[in-house]
Amino acid sequence: MDYLKQYKSFINSYYLSEGVRITIGVTLPAIIFNYFNNLSVGILVSLGALCASMPDNAGPPLHRRNAMMVCNLVVFLAALVTGIASNNAIVLGIVISISCFAFAMMGVYGSRATSIGLAGLLVMVLSIDKPSHGWEFLLNPLYILAGGIWYMVLSLSLNSFRPYKLAQQALGECIQTTADYLRLKASFYEKKDDFSDNYSQLLDKQIEVHHKQDLVRELLFKSRDIVRESTATGRILVMAFLDIIDLFEKIMTSHQDYTSLHASFDSTELLKQYRQTILAMAKELDEVGIAVKSTRAYEQNDELPVQVMQLRNYFIEFRDKHRNAENLEGFISMRHILDSIEDIAYRIYTLEGYTTYDKKISRQGIEQIDYEKFIAHQDIQPGLLKENLSLSSNIFRHSLRLSIATLTGFIVSRFFSFGHSYWILLTIIVIIKPAYSLTKRRNYERLLGTITGAFIGIVALYLIKDKTILFAIMIFFMIGSYSFMRTHYLVFVILMTPYILLLFHLLNPDNFQMVIADRIIDTLIGSLIAFVANIVLLPAWEHEQITEYLEKMIGDTLRYFEDATAPFLNKPVSTTLYKLSRKNAFVSLANLTDAFNRMLSEPKSKQKNIREMHQFVVSSHLLTSHIATLSYYAPSFVDKKNLYQLSGAINAIKKKLINAEALFLSSQEKKVIDEEAWRHFNNQVNEVTERRKKELQAGILESDTKKELSVLKPIADQFNFIMNNASSLERLSTSLKKAL
Questions:
Q1: What's the pLDDT tens digit per position in 432-459?
Q2: Would residue 267 be called left, alpha or beta, if left means φ above 0 and alpha means ψ between -120 and 50 degrees?
Q3: Predicted TM-score of the model (pTM)
């Protein structure tokens, strides 16, 4: 692992910036009020700031501002209602149950609304063990509201000073994740008997790539100033993002039949040379991503172009020396991979130029694309909430589960002298998630993180007695925990636990040992309740809802195939339409893979047809990869004399996908495949291939047949790969539909 690269990447990341921002927003009020001997008020103000930070995740400034405003209102009302009810245990229990259900149901409006609901739950559970006296029921919510307003002003002010910084950091993360994907592609050139692990890693990384792309899409296309391209920086960011999406597709176009390539060239150094060059490109792309995040110009060098040129010279020399009739097809594939490598290297060079933010570059034309079609708009109509008030809704079932679990935790805490309602409920709230697999992982990470973090905190307190140093260490843990809050939950808990322990020690050093023991016991109680609730109370298993992902994947892939093959039929397709269908297919694949991974974490009894499901996911990935590869060859083919009728092959593949989709749509009509047209297409290709093999046996190295085959063979291979995977999807859809 390159630790220097990891360090530079983290230091310039959005997550560290967020961690520092939240730490300042949360600690400053407490420090100021403590200076004036009013720490209790400072803690309430800091709590309000912490709640306001929860929906302040990456996104357009307008969305962040609106979310924080709504969050402040929700948190104020939650604190007010809890304060009024805190003096009566029965009323408080009813408030907890209703509030948990209501706040969890906010998840129907998207992830930002979910964060707002979580903030409401947080302020509620932290208020239940502190009964209000006199006007405290109103003053405490007002202090919390003041803290929320303070944090909102701080966050938006920082954004106004550096309006492009967040987009640059997100774009840099996207570029680096694409580099990781390219690095995984290089692993296919290693000597292996089985590539199943490679495909699994590639699918997981593809999910991450699409999540990063969606974030950048939101930041760029929903920010009006950037989309209008009013500044050179805004224009260049849009240009760089469009290029990195095309680069990602280009990386996918290098997909080939690796088993066949290894069979032909494992005894040589050719595949090793390819792998080294691909790794060099991934390293270069990583550095570009770090440069974009740090807003510094990348220092271009000639190392990568020279290495690519050396690879081509090596390939030509090797091919001329070893080419024969038996390995002809392998050399054709390797030459096209080499063309892809050169294209990727050129695109990386272009991305390097963007880091200079040269105004001359910004004056270049940008493709006319309807950006609105590429971003998802969250429906906030009240009718959406009404539609989800049924047991068929996963959010509704999750809300009921959370409501019952928190009420149970509240009741249990009343029977134990060591039980703290707020900590038990907080544990339940942060662990229980809509999906079983997420709850299971959170439960494990919460317990492991708490125990590990408690050990770190105890060691720090045993070795260090100076309160100033302890406070500095607490701030360090605080920044670290908030920096990993949205990315690595285990690390977040490990860092958060000593931060909380140090905070309790500084506030109340006399009862510290009791605090540690109580927190561990409370965490165990909350984890146990969450675990049982997740299994017993209206569980949502992936096999109950994965059919929707399967149908969506096939439908979007079919439309992507239609747009990708339109040029072969001389049908014009706009750039916007093609890129939109490509985006939808990739996103559907990522969603399906994500659902499959969640299914793998469920009990074995709930993993329905897991083997067929895995085959379906892998076939879907191969299908989209080969369609992307096919789209790359379309321009080179239409410029040639169209000697071959491809409509029969295209229609045969479309019918396979239509049949697979129809199974999940419960359609009885099944398309009949014209096998004769498919055989005719392959026979034509085989005739040219055999003719070329005879030429090589006769010592003819250059001919019109060679040129004809170099254009036709890669296209024919991709059509055959696509047909095989489409047939697999049709077959697997039949068995999965029966089982699900």
A1: 888 777 777 777 888 888 888 888 888 8
A2: alpha
A3: 0.81
